[in-house]
Design goal:
Blueprint (H helix, E strand, L loop, with lengths): L7 E13 L1 E2 L11 E2 L10 E2 L1 H18 L5 H8 L10 E3 L2 E3 L13 E6 L15 E7 L4 E11 L2 H17 L13 E8 L3 E3 L12 E8 L15 E2 L7 H16 L5 H4 L2 E2 L4 E2 L8 E2 L5 E4 L4 E3 L23 E3 L6 E2 L6 E2 L5 E9 L5 E12 L4 E8 L5 H12 L3 E2 L2 E8 L14 E3 L3 E2 L14 E4 L2 E2 L4 E2 L3 E4 L4 E2 L8 E2 L7 E2 L30 H8 L8 H17 L3 H17 L1 H27 L1
Parallel strand pairs: 3-8, 13-23
Antiparallel strand pairs: 1-9, 1-10, 1-11, 2-8, 4-6, 5-9, 6-9, 7-8, 12-24, 12-26, 14-24, 15-24, 16-20, 17-18, 17-19, 18-35, 20-21, 22-23, 25-26, 27-33, 27-34, 28-32, 29-32, 30-31
């Protein structure tokens, strides 16, 4: 039997890049034909994805290994992973982003410029077909960008020091990040600073009493890409908004073997009840669950569960003044979850899914055939939670399991999480006779089971794939989470949710303007715009919103058009262009674009309402 790990080390560091010149990366959504926008963060500032930074460091490490023959290839695979396999990489990287100091005083639009790129046919001197493109480049000269690094776990401090040196030297050897580096883009000086290492002692003393049930919350330190394990070929790789119980179980078994030197016994594993972790309230540590099928939201933002609602027309619920359906109702949006602590239920803010372009490359760093795809992810900082249970908390195995869950950062689907155990989480688990139960985990549909009276079931298919044999498993019919059952014998897969049959608290949306940008007021249609023009004439103004047009170019164009419409006696359009030019001269291009954007929105609403009145 192997020896247990008395100490484990997790290295933490920061990658700092001092940028020079233009940068570009096309990880964002593709625009119209021939235009590639730069990938941006939630505030509109330039962003460089974690996968690209990880790949750039790997490329530099391979170059360095070619120069210095003393670098062990196995250490490269240990730190960065083995390409083409699902092997775990010890290095985790966050997005490379501008520091807060280098965002201050700069609007997001001020970083970007549109640059054309063409390829010329040498035989005839004309542009090749489909090779006239425009790319949105970011001018980052003199700016500083940072990314967080995590590497581990290690059981040998000397091996950790050697891996640190490898990453630091690879960063110093690398001269640029992002796309089109061969054309001089993405230049900068990169350095890695390692901070204090985190040391855990999984075999150390444990709390005197292990709770039989406790809240288990995981906060993503890097982006979470949870692709379902199933065979398929698609250009959009969808993600799941949860950490499945079997994924958590798989990490626990591997970590238990790494820490204690042996695999857990099947009888011991049967005493653990692994939960499916859904997005939860990170501040108050309230676990989230999928909303019931009977919960609806109307256009006024009111949320109510309609289980047990009487269809009797004489019921006060159906009176016009009390009718919940006085406006359109629909189920809660995807990514919405509910809480179940206390007498009143609540809705958690929706979980945001982001889509990014990815390229699959071979060992020569060339994109393979059909290697371009889009992948969904959940951003770092998202908290997932659930209730973990131990059927026999007084055993030695339960103590080891509790130490492992409390002190070791989980690694699920290539994402590193920070764990937190909350013993005081209270979730109702005993169903009452007059209330149904909410399904929170898939329940395998038994042969001959028919839906009972009052059940609201959403049928689903559990698709599985055997990665070892390279073939799909047989699909399973399941009762999907969010279904409502009158009764169920699957005690671990259901809860007695307190929100059935009543109103539910919904979060109030908070819209904040990005830093450095003033959010314009919504257009008002109480009175028509000061200048009413046609839709075709409005297209002239949209040209001034293009970020690639400079102030002198816009000013000259405005003066020419003012003279033109003055000669044609087009007073309305002439006065509007004079107002645009006046805003440009007095307050600059950003204020001018804000003025034009607000005017076009107001005009569009006015013309739409006017057309509706004419149709009536």
């Amino acid at each position: 039997m192997e020896q247990s790990a008395d100490r484990m080390f997790l290295a933490k560091g920061t990658l700092t890049v001092e940028a020079r010149g233009y940068w570009f990366t096309a990880g964002g959504e593709k625009g119209p034909f021939g235009f590639y926008p730069h990938l941006k963060d939630a505030d509109g500032y330039p962003l460089f994805p974690d996968t690209q930074v990880h790949g750039d460091l790997l490329m530099a490490a391979r170059w360095l290994a070619g120069v210095d023959g003393g670098i062990d290839k196995s250490r490269l695979e240990q730190v960065f992973g083995r390409p083409g396999t699902n092997g775990k990489a010890l290095l985790r990287v966050s997005d490379l982003e501008l520091t807060d100091d280098h965002k201050t005083g700069k609007t997001p639009e001020s970083f970007f410029q549109i640059k054309p790129r063409i390829r010329i046919r040498e035989d005839v001197g004309t542009v090749e077909r489909h090779m006239l493109v425009e790319r949105e480049h970011a001018w980052l000269a003199g700016r500083v960008l940072r990314a967080d690094l995590w590497m581990g776990y290690f059981t040998d401090e000397k091996e950790m020091a050697a891996c640190k040196t490898l990453v630091s030297e690879a960063a110093g050897f690398l001269g640029g990040f992002g796309g089109s580096r061969s054309r001089g883009l993405g230049r900068g000086t990169a350095t890695v600073e390692w901070g204090d290492d985190e040391m855990v002692a999984p075999t150390g003393p444990v709390e005197p009493e292990v709770p039989a049930a406790f809240g288990y919350f995981l906060t993503a330190l890097t982006h979470f890409r949870n692709k379902p394990v199933e065979r398929g070929s698609t250009q959009v790789v969808g993600g799941m908004t949860c950490i499945r119980a079997d994924q958590l179980r798989g990490w626990f078994v591997r970590a238990y073997r790494d820490v204690y030197g042996q695999w857990p016994e099947p009888d011991h594993m049967a005493t653990l009840r692994f939960p499916t972790l859904y997005p939860s309230d990170a501040q108050d540590h309230r676990p989230g669950f999928p909303p019931p099928m009977s919960t609806l939201r109307n256009e006024d933002g009111e949320v109510r569960d309609l289980w047990g609602a009487s269809p009797d027309p004489d019921d006060t619920f159906n009176n016009d003044d009390e009718n919940f359906f006085r406006t359109k109702t629909k189920p809660l949006s995807a990514g919405t979850f509910v809480t179940a602590d206390g007498p009143r239920a609540a809705i958690l803010p929706p979980t945001q899914m982001e889509q990014r372009f990815r390229n699959a490359m071979d060992v020569t760093f060339s994109t393979i055939d059909d290697g371009l795809f889009v992948q969904e992810l959940i951003g770092r900082g998202t908290c997932f939670g659930g209730v973990f249970r131990l059927t026999d908390p007084k055993t030695d195995f339960a103590g080891k399991a509790f130490r492992l869950l409390s002190r070791v950062h989980p690694d699920v689907k290539g994402t590193l999480f920070e764990s937190r155990v909350v013993p005081s989480v209270a979730v109702p688990q005993i169903p009452t006779p007059d209330k149904p139960v909410l399904v929170i985990d898939p329940i395998r549909l038994k042969t001959g089971r028919a839906p009972g009276h009052g059940d609201q079931i959403f049928m689903g298919v559990e698709k599985r794939f055997n990665a070892m044999l390279g073939r799909p498993r047989r699909n399973r019919l399941v009762i999907s989470p969010g279904s409502v059952l009158r009764r169920s014998d699957a005690a671990d897969a259901v809860i007695a949710w307190p929100g059935f049959g009543g109103p539910i608290d919904a979060p109030s949306p908070k819209e904040e303007a990005p830093p450095g940008e003033t959010k314009s007021a919504p257009p008002s249609t109480e009175k028509p715009p000061q200048w009413v023009i046609t839709r075709s004439q409005a297209g002239l103004l949209r040209d001034y919103l293009h970020p690639g047009r400079s102030e002198p170019e816009i000013r000259d164009n405005l003066k020419d058009r003012i003279e033109k419409y003055q000669a044609k006696n087009e007073e309305t359009l002439e006065k509007l262009l004079v107002a645009v030019l006046d805003r440009l001269d007095k307050k600059g291009a950003d204020a001018m674009r804000t003025f034009v954007r607000d005017y076009l929105e107001n005009l569009a609403v006015y013309l739409w309402e006017k057309k509706g009145e004419e149709d009536r």
